Structures are given as structure tokens and as C-alpha cells.
Amino acid sequence: MDRRAFLATSSLAAGGALIGRASAQPAAAESAQPANILLSMKGGMCKAGKTLEEKFSVLKKLGYDGIELDSPGGQNKKEAIAAAKKTGLPIHGVVDSIHWKTTLSDPSAEVREKGLQGLLTAIRESHQVGGTSVLIVPGVAKGKVSHQEAWDRSIAELRKALPLASQLGIHILIENVWNNMFYDPKGGENQTAELLVKYIDEVNSPWVGSYFDIGNHQKFGKPADWIRSLGKRIVKLDVKDWGKKNGFCKIGEGDVDWADVRKALVEINYNGWATAEVKGGDEARCAEILANMKKHVLGA
């Protein structure tokens, strides 16, 4: 089944974890309140507690719905599984921990193979911990690697991972980052998601979608418009903010138009995970991050 046929019969939005939303949708951006969004943070952000069980317990107590780990390597997966069971805080996926240095777009076939093996490990470990996805930066276009080369090489490698992803039911999700792919770093602040849409559609698999980072491309385009363009291709969200005066900053202190973001999420009927990717800290900081996400992502 190709990606388009799959989307006609199944929602990618939460990997099967969530269903529906009320049909009534507010017209005004200010009143838009997305429903069925689960709030999470990256595992390395929580500095409270010494053990994984203590960290999971803190996040559960604060009201987080889940957590995301790193792979290959990263947190001890057996310990994480035990912590999740003990505290009731689920692990919803993993972030590919080697995708920046061992890229799927590298000129060396040997390096690309190492990157592929890292992705396959991440897929297996996401499944092992009960997750539904692997976040990956598919390539980097710089130096001797052109945009087209990064595009072609990374798609070729991603396709090699699709059989395992399909077998285990794990989504491979493309994060929009400052990797010189899918945007022009010198192209101004009104760029669209056209290239990212085209890339995902070219892979043409129900197991490949967008892990849309709300703040990452604020410098180059309007996040709400990217959300509208990507639509059902978005499976999960990263949450951060960016501003012309303060760069990457606390959620709500940058230039992201959160009211329009919420409206766009309602328009595409988004249901799924929203994971903070900002500067972490102690329990008080983790509580602040959650409060910021509730206010700006949920409109609560």
C-alpha cells in the first residue's frame, strides 16, 4: 500500500494511539483549542532525580503524558521500560542519536551504511520500549554535499529501513532543522513547506512522515502555514520558540504566532504527541515547560 492510499483510510497523527476530535471547530485563531494532544519532553531535559525511575516519577507527578528517549545508546532501555511500568509514564518514541554526524547523505557509502544501521537500531529500540516512532534528520546539505545529493542519498537509505519499520509498526519521522534541506538559509522569512512536502511524498510510504518542529523554521517561514501545507503528513510535533531578538528561547517568548499555530492544528485535525525540545532543568523548570506548552500549544 502506498502512502496516499494509506492516508485515505488511516490517520497517521498518533500512530494509532488517539481517535477523533469534536467536529465543531472555532473560526477565530484566538479561540482555537486543539484536542487530543499529548504533552511530552525529551528524556535528557529532565535534571530532577538521579535514576530514570525518579525522573519518570517527577514528570508523571507534574502531569506530563509521556517521554521520548535517545537511540542508539542514550538511556538504558531496560531501566527505562521498568521505570515506565512502575510510574505509568509511557515512552512514545526515540530520537536518532547519530543522525547529525553519521548522516544518510554522506558522500561515503560506508558512513551512510553506519547511519542506516543506527536508524535500524533506533527502530528496534523504539519498538522495544513501546514507542511508535523514530525522529531523524535525514541529511545535511553542506560542503561537498549538494541539496539534490542529500535528497537522493537520504531517500535511498530511508527506503532500506522501510521493511523493518513496517514489520514493527514504527514511523520514521523527518524533523525540519537547520540542515540546509527543504529551505534556503539565505531565502528570507516567507519560505513555504513545499520542498518538505515533496520529499515526504517522494518517499511515498505510510511509515514516513513529518516530525514537525514548530519553532525551528520561524526564522524562514510561518510555522502555522507549514502545518497547513504538511497536513496529515505530520505525525508528531516538537515544541520550541524562536525570535529575531532572542533566538531560540522559552516557549512563548519568541516570534511564533501560537494562536495561528493552534488554529492550524485544529484545521488539520491534529491528534498526537507534542514534545518540548528546549533547555531543561530541575523539577521547577520541567513544571514551567509543561505550563508553557499547555498555554501556547493547547490554549489552556
UniProtKB/TrEMBL annotation:
Taking every annotated instance into account, which residue ranges of this chain make up the domain Xylose isomerase-like TIM barrel?
A: 57-285
Q: What is this protein called?
A: Xylose isomerase-like TIM barrel domain-containing protein
Matches recorded under InterPro entries: IolE/XylAMocC-like, TAT_signal, Xyl_isomerase-like_sf, Xyl_isomerase-like_TIM-brl
Organism whose genome encodes this protein: Oceaniferula spumae
